[in-house]
Amino acid sequence: MVKRMQWLLETALLVAVSFPIALLPRNAAVKVGEVLGLLLFRLWGSRRAVAVDNILRAQQEGALDSGAQAGEVARQSFVNVGRSFAEVLQIYFGRGRAIVAGAELRGLEHYRKAQEKGRGVIVITGHYGNWELMALAFGVKTGKVSVVARRQNNPVLNALIERVRARYGNAVIYKQGALKQILGLLRKGGTVGILMDQAVLSDEGFVVPFLGRGAWTTRMPSLLARKTGAPVVPVFISRKGDGHVITIYPEIPLSTNERAEEALIEDTERFSAAIEAVIRRDPREWLWIHRRWKRTGSSAVQQSMAQP
Predict the structure, then answer these.
(1) Model confidence over 255-308: pLDDT tens digits?
(2) Are 112 and 220 in contact (CB under 8 A)?
(3) Which secondary structure element, helix H or strand E, spans residue 250, and what is its range?
(4) Which of 13, 96, 126, 157 is the most exposed place for a label (fewest CB within 10 A)?
(5) Rounded Cα–Cα distance for residues 45 and 52 (Å)
(6) CA-to-CA distance for 207 and 300, rounded, in angstroms?
(7) What is the pLDDT of residues 15-69, one digit of tens each?
(8) CB 106 within 8 A of CB 155
(9) Hey, which bits of the chain come out as E strands?
(10) Is residue 114 within 8 Å of residue 231, measured between CB atoms?
(11) How far is CA 45 from its chain centroid?
(12) Residue 171 forms beta bridges with which residues?
């Protein structure tokens, strides 16, 4: 009972703080979001340091243009988070139909071609642009999408988020025990979206190159594609003026390596490279505050990277 009261109070506080932003005209809300992003950049020193270090390391490894100042890229990344937060608030409070409808969709023919195979579709993406908006807009414009996500610690807030996603035709698959549900959806021709640019545990993936360094990366898309025959299609959202562009890229072919483990690694490298390519084009829109390269200093990691 006490715990539930805590969850209710946390949710009520979040709603009370967020609601005024949601009520603003869209451009004003986005401006407030920018200010919030700048405040986070100034005040959240630990995450600012992580972001700047990640960017510098990527530049040192030659994975990013060294001409851009790491601090400025990090600042713009925080600003993007703030803008996206304001837009998502408007959507969650029922004032974001225009934001969703206004997102331009490019490359739909690649998605339809993948659907025609009748094996379902695996959409891979990353924490780039306003990824929450992308999931909602993609579902509205193409049909229902089931997104693999982590359950919120606050179940009251989690239920609220679920309802909003369902309102736009999407569903959530929670990571724990997700495999059976995902396989069932793909076999029925459904679409499953996976964010694959976060570090995973060693039993969940492989260390593959990412922006110049080895990073633990989920093997789930490759496993699913090989088990079901579902094509893997990269989809990303980026800002264009006051709006957004969602770009669907062609299907990524799977490795033809006859050694099962090596084929999974090669697939994962290809999928990860698709995310890396988008980040290189405009690194300001990626979530640099994540500790993407954690747990990669052990001998086990070196052995993983050395596999043929």
Answers:
(1) 999 999 999 999 999 999 999 999 999 999 999 999 999 988 643 444 444 444
(2) no
(3) none
(4) 13
(5) 10
(6) 10
(7) 787 889 989 999 999 999 999 999 999 999 999 999 999 999 999 999 998 888 9
(8) no
(9) 104-106, 121-125, 146-149, 171-174, 191-195, 205-210, 213-218, 232-240, 243-248
(10) yes
(11) 23
(12) 146
How much is the pTM? Answer: 0.91
CA distance 247 to 237: 6
Residue type, 208: V
Q: What is the 3-state secondary structure (H, E, C) of 49-75?
A: HHHHHHHHHHHHCCCCCCCCCHHHHHH
Neighbours of 24 (CB within 10 A): 17
Query: Furthest-apart CA pair in the chain: how many Å?
Result: 57
Among the listed residues 259, 262, 194, the one whose alpha carbon sits nearest the alpha carbon of residue 224: 194
- Report yes or no: 244 and 237 within 8 Å, Cβ to Cβ: yes
Burial degree of 144 (CB within 10 A; 0-12, 13-18, 19+): middle
The burial class, CB within 10 Å (0-12 / 13-18 / 19+), for 95 is middle
Residue 13: Cβ within 10 Å count: 10
**Encoding tokens for residue 276?**
């890396």
Q: Which residue has the tokens 């050694």?
A: 259
How far apart (Å, rounded) are the C-alpha atoms in residues 97 and 24? 14
